[in-house]
Amino acid sequence: MSALFTPFTLDGLTLPNRIVIAPMCQYSAVDGDAQDWHLMHLGNLALSGAGMLVIEATGVEPEGRITPACLGLWSDANEAALGRVVEGIRKYSDMPLAIQLGHAGRKASSALPWQGGQLLAPEAGGWPTLGPSALPQLPHEPAPRALDGEGLARIREAFAAAARRAARVGIDCIELHGAHGYLLHQFLSPLSNQRDDAYGGSLENRMRFPLEVFDAVRAAFPAGKPVGMRISATDWVEGGWDLEQSVVLARALKARGCSFMHVSTGGLSPQQKLVLGPGYQVPFAVRIRQETELPTIAVGLITEPEQAEEIVARGQADLVGVARCMLYDPRWPWHAAARLGARLQAAPQYWRCLPREHAQLFSGAQVGGR
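^ thats the sequence. predicted structure below, dont judge the formating
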């Protein structure tokens, strides 16, 4: 039996297999509101046969969006728009749905990637950014405003309020975005956090705000529904955030009821020196899983079914995150199951599509006519 296609349970949520569609920004929202694009895009992915779909990074306040076109969940209008998308998906798919809640901090107010992706000036539709310290993302950019106590309290509550909204629209799982150089990661890393108060300096202090946010979200989201965190396990910069600190953070999160760690790397500093290759981030997930026994999602150039199968079969990670390859091939889980000799569920509207050599791929499929 394929290890990749065995079920896995996160708290009270059972995934039918170990494939997680990692969050991918679509830059297609209007004032944070999900649009028809999201219904089509997410609806398509929800018919893919994966174990869980994670909705893209979703801003908990307007200033927390990466771009002006990023998804949000801070208002009644945002909630209604996302609710329409979830309702549409649920008519045809019972795939578990997660959402990644985040705040971009000093990496907010960016142009869309296909418009260059650089910092937007206010006159071009941008806004002043926030961060743990007045240190810009790039040397030539204006410094963000360092958050004071009032700002920290506002953002904590914004995360909790977004979690309550997510629960109301029927989201099954929350992933906090503590990776890729966004606000929670900015607090963790000594490269971006140079505060001299209770939220900066020592590792304990730098972890304080992300842990407070986790506590607020965990309290706001229904018991039995999982809450986890995505982290960058290293900045890939000497003197920055690293794997040893990530293990300490993971242990602290586990003590607070964290359900899983989604282990990525990088994104905080332009000085990062990554060494890319197939599965290049998997060793970080392995270490965190070994040290904490928390369920882990491994990501990073995992593109082949056999590669994903080996990661799960060898116990390197519990789940495998796939993203860009799902954009290229939204039926990647079907093709993975076919290559690994597994079976999966599919919508009956698609039962007639199978080639002869994979006629048994869909569980329970039967087609008749007259």
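The two ends are 36 Å apart (CA to CA).
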